[in-house]
Amino acid sequence: MRNVLLILSMLALVLSGCDKPKEVESTTGEAAVEKVADAEEKVGELTIYSGRNEEMLKPLMAQFSEESGIEIKVQYGKSSELAATLVEEGDASPADVFFAQDVSTLGFLANEGKLVANEKFAERVPATFRAADNTWVGVSGRARVLAYNTNTVKPEELPADVDGLLNERWKGRIGWAPENASFQSFVAAMIAQRGQEETKKWLEGVMALAPKAFPSNTPLVTAVGRGEIEVGLTNHYYLFRLKAEHGEDFPVANHYFRSGKSGSLVNAAGVAVVKTGQNREAADAFVEFLLSKPAQEYFATKTHEFPLVAGVETGGKIPKITELKTPATDLSTLGQLEPAVRLLHEIGALK
């Protein structure tokens, strides 16, 4: 089936490295599932394909099941691989809901005609973080940042945007994770904003600085803390997991780009209802639950992500999402990673 092999090779999305979650503190999300819980007929088992970390989601899944009375079956894995499975299964897929680590995967599934529109959720989150046709909706956001070693780098030395990294100051001292889908999505956003030729020039400029490549974001940020490199391009929340592991004196801080260029990208994890699912009412209730205040507060305080529903504050360790000047990028197009991956091969960042 078309694009199945491409998604396996191009959309190798990694699971988020979030802080180890604690139990959800609020149980006021009952309204989000009240309709299903009160239904006269028993709702069948809800099957969820989740590209998000099992340990992170377990408290939320337990709360939803307890409040709604809906039994859930969750298949965990990489978002890209689960998406390929869904496409291969066709109409026989047991999935009712697809919960993706990155909305680029949902963009792919929408293009494959695998998702159903949910207009009832259209106004719950800003237009930037939902599909124009309402086939998916963002649940939580994560920002691209420059993690830096606080022992060796002064805040005033940090560039205003990613173009400022093309400086001999950072030669041999910068890290990136070109194999990681979050980095590839960042490159895709740059292509959308400035075109392939200019993006290639930027990538070649970084390559000239002899960057150290990492397979994923956690070892990259760890290397910043150890002083193996001084700065690294990553997602903002990895820092908090490592501080939880190593202590608050772990010598790394996040530098947020606020220029409105691709380095300021805020991507999202998202959820969608599968068109061939047999449990639409329960699927809608699950989406509603993820957009409820307690679930949004959980993402804000336990995984240090940006809540996307209005009225929910971010955790105290990250800025408000409204304070970040983000690029005008259609996040659903970031599922088209082939041009980004091709450029990374051309410049030698990927073998």
UniProtKB/TrEMBL annotation:
Keyword Nucleotide-binding: no
GO CC annotation: outer membrane-bounded periplasmic space
Swiss-Prot/TrEMBL keywords: Signal
PROSITE patterns assigned: PROKAR_LIPOPROTEIN (PS51257)
Stored InterPro entries: Ferric-bd
Similarity field: Belongs to the bacterial solute-binding protein 1 family.
Protein name: Iron ABC transporter substrate-binding protein
